[in-house]
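User: Need the bound-state model for manganese (II) ion:
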Amino acid sequence: MPPRYQPADSLASPRFTGVRTFARLPHVRTTAEVDVAVVGLPFDTGATYKVGARFGPESIRSASAMLRPYNAELDVQVFAQLSVVDYGDAPVIPGFIDDSYAAITATLRPLAEAQVITLGLGGDHSIALAELRALAAVHGPLALVQFDSHGDLWDSYYGGHKYTHGTPFRRAVEEGLILPARSIQLGMRGSLFGQEDLQIARDMGFTVLTTTQLLACSPREIGDLVRQQVGDGKVFLSFDVDFFDPAYAPGTGTPEVGGPSSFQGLAYLRACTGIRWVGADVVEVLPAHDHAQITAQLAAQVGYEFLSLVALGPV
Ligand code: MN
Ligand code: MN
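Assistant: Bound-state model below.
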């Protein structure tokens, strides 16, 4: 039996036709016969600098029309293996992070309960906490694989405000949603507030690779390290597009120069095979600062690589 839900065939109808969904998938709000659901999480008032990631999901969906079903690098027919839908967006409330968290968690939890893997399209990175609340409630505490130029482990901003895109993983650790000793952060770089900023993550038990350390390793070495780190437990991938150099991802809220190219970053991601993924997100796409859909197209590709890794399976 072929998978129940598949993308429109771009050899049969032009990709610029139809209503834009991720990868031209059907927009269906069901958990029945669904392996992966793509969910837009268009919230951006957790951002501490440039806002506009609320338009990220729309932009990523538009750029994703270019995706084809066969991943030649990973040798997998993604949509022959997986039934995937575009589930639409969570009903977030701009400016109200607690209510938006509740809306995101309420949207994702029934998917997790039905063993549907979720792929969130951000939105600023604050949304990851709401995703992790939904997934950990069903799956238990998760290992985290985070591609990002920032750790997002700061305690608070602006006099004790604890919920921003700079703090979601600190809160996730406090709430017992992720297991630092099973987690890894890849790509840290840029100016910091102090020497302690990187040490915070290591003191909490995370394995942390700076961009300099990452780029000194081959994709194969990174794949081995990530597998060793997460073990055979359930894993969440959180991919902040500011992981990439701004030359490859200019449309983002807190860019950091001196990062991996799109070629390098995708190679590291593709090396993360053999992992029990239960969810992922790709976040911090700001179309207002994007040019020629450079960032949105790269974010769509990141989502596609995640689907490919899921299609390959955990073995
Ligand atoms: Mn970041
Ligand atoms: Mn981030």
